[in-house]
UniProtKB/TrEMBL annotation:
The gene is Cpne7. Gene3D superfamilies: C2 domain (2.60.40.150). GO terms for biological process: cellular response to calcium ion. It comes from the Eukaryota. Belongs to the copine family. InterPro entries: C2_dom, C2_domain_sf, C2B_Copine, Copine, Copine_C, vWFA_dom_sf. Residues 2-130, 137-264 form the C2 domain. The lineage of its organism: Eukaryota, Metazoa, Chordata, Craniata, Vertebrata. It comes from Smutsornis africanus. It holds the Pfam family Copine. This is CPNE7 protein.
Length: 513
């Protein structure tokens, strides 16, 4: 349920531009890394850094691959992609030293590479040389980064594998098996999707369940071929091949519920050489769970309705409506700031509301007949039915309401949020919950602590809140409620369950098409 609240605003604070956001997955591999270790090969790890306000900040890091100068990292880096921004990335490769972790000393540094997210996205596959300090080449070392956009209909899948009676590759103990899953792309290249942990000294290992995105596993195509390989781990990086099998996500789905799916783990060389060769073990998919991640469009196309509620700030700080400087000034020739904002948001939301009836409420004014202050009144003055016919009905109710009320205060929208929350809670109980959207527009937040607690409670319900700041006031309190700079909490420290608040300074968008 959308509740919109409108309120006035001192000096504008800089806001980020309206951005088109996508998420991008990055996969990293290296070749011909420098060998920093005397006895073994380097144990590489990749750090991903992103430039923010001129400073390099670490975003994430890969796993450490033991004794390998040509590593293919299983770690998938996920970054936000903004088309209109130059997003600088830096990949740094280090030789890790066991328990000491990844050092940042010069002697552990195997090379770095800088590029932008845009370059990787445009080329899909970027291979560049690694550089040491002062622009010196790190020998013949190269790094390759492959990008893939996460599609909107993406979900993820949880898989649990085990194996039985694998071939024993070790002389004095049993094999130490791990499993790798590769996706085979249209150009027949293979992308590493996941690498399990190593189960020591066990020919019938049970690997830990793991989650991968459907996009990563099969590009959201159920029939795309997957190659699964079982290896015997070697601490020097020379893993012994046990066997492989091919499958699809479509076939894997037979493992849902009580069912299990199994494959013969085959070694092609043994199949040719050994007459009675059956397999090198069996791999079993014990369980598969699909977790769909639905987009906003999925909900709308699935029949979700948005009930739109407007809450308008009628506090005295808006200025006398008879004065042309007031944000509530009724100009016979053009709409005031409140009306412009109301129509701008309302015209979008009304397309998703089947009955086109909008609850329109006000707060912060003295209202007839007793002229007592109210923080929750219907602007059509009908307490039994606060709904207006379409956005035009809200506009007409607002215009007829203004001359009848006295702007007062304080700014307190919590009672209206609580009222909408009660309706949302009732709908949730009757299994008829639609999305409720409150909207808000206010300058100072007199009862900030009370408001925080109200918003935290509301985050557990099917409702969202758009706060539209009207005018040029100081909107610091509104931005705190937005929660983009940190998690919004109640006075007792309880965090919001979901980020349900979006603050919009109308002055920055009113001239946009």
């Amino acid at each position: 349920r959308a509740t919109a609240t409108m309120g006035e605003a001192t000096e504008p604070s800089p806001q980020a531009p309206l951005a088109v956001l996508s998420k991008v997955e990055l996969r990293v591999s290296c070749k011909h890394l420098l060998d920093r270790d005397t006895l073994n090969k380097s144990d590489p790890c990749v750090l991903l850094l992103m430039q923010s306000q001129g400073q390099w900040m670490e975003v994430d890091r890969s796993e450490v691959i033991k004794s390998n100068l040509n590593p293919v990292f299983a770690k998938i880096f996920t970054v936000d992609y903004y088309f209109e921004e130059v997003q600088k990335l830096r990949f740094e490769v280090y030789d890790s030293h066991g328990h000491a972790g990844v050092g940042t000393h010069d002697d552990d540094f195997l090379g770095g590479m800088e590029c932008t997210v845009g370059q990787i996205v445009a080329q899909k596959r970027v291979t560049k040389p690694l550089f040491l300090k002062y622009g010196k080449f790190a020998g013949k070392s190269t790094i390759t980064v492959i990008s893939e956009e996460i599609s909107g209909n993406n979900g993820y899948v949880e898989l649990a594998f085990r194996a039985k009676k694998l071939d024993d590759k070790d002389l004095f103990s049993k094999s130490d098996p791990f499993l790798e899953i590769y996706r085979i792309d249209d150009d027949r290249s293979e992308q590493l999707v996941y690498r399990t942990e190593v189960v020591k000294n066990n020919l019938s290992p049970i690997w830990e369940p793991f989650k991968v995105s459907l996009n990563s596993l099969c590009s959201c195509e159920e029939k795309r071929k997957l190659r699964c390989v079982v290896w015997d781990y070697d601490s020097r990086g020379k893993h012994d091949f046990i066997g492989e099998f091919f499958t699809t996500f479509e076939e894997m789905q037979k493992a849902m519920g009580e069912n299990k799916v199994q494959w013969d783990c085959m070694n092609p060389k043994y199949k040719i050489k050994k007459r009675n060769y059956k397999n090198s073990g069996v791999v079993v998919l014990l369980d598969l769970k699909i977790h769909r991640v639905y987009s906003f469009l999925d909900y709308i196309m699935g029949g979700c309705q948005i009930h739109f509620t407007v809450a308008i700030d009628f506090t005295a700080s808006n200025g006398d409506p008879r004065n042309s400087c007031s944000l509530h000034y009724i100009n016979p020739y053009q709409p005031n700031e409140y009306l412009k904002a109301l129509v701008a948001v309302g015209e979008i939301c009304q397309d998703y509301d089947s009955d086109k009836k909008f609850s329109a409420l006000g707060f912060g004014a003295r209202i007839p007949p007793k002229y007592e202050v109210s923080h929750d009144f219907a602007i059509n003055f009908n307490p039994d039915n606060d709904e207006c016919e379409g956005i035009q009905g809200v506009v007409e109710s607002y215009q007829s309401c203004l001359p009848k009320i006295q702007l007062y205060g304080p700014t307190n929208v919590a009672p209206i949020i609580s009222k909408v929350a009660r309706v949302a809670a009732d709908e949730e109980r009757t299994k008829e919950a639609s999305v409720r959207t409150p909207r808000q527009w206010a300058p100072g937040w007199a009862e900030t602590q009370y408001a925080h607690a109200t918003f935290v409670r509301a985050s557990y319900l099917p409702m969202s809140i758009i706060i539209v700041g009207v005018g040029n006031a100081d909107f610091t309190d509104m931005q705190i409620l937005d929660g983009d700079d940190g998690i919004l909490r109640s006075p007792k420290g309880e965090p919001v369950l979901r980020d349900i608040v979006q603050f919009v300074p109308f002055r920055e968008f009113k001239n946009v098409s």
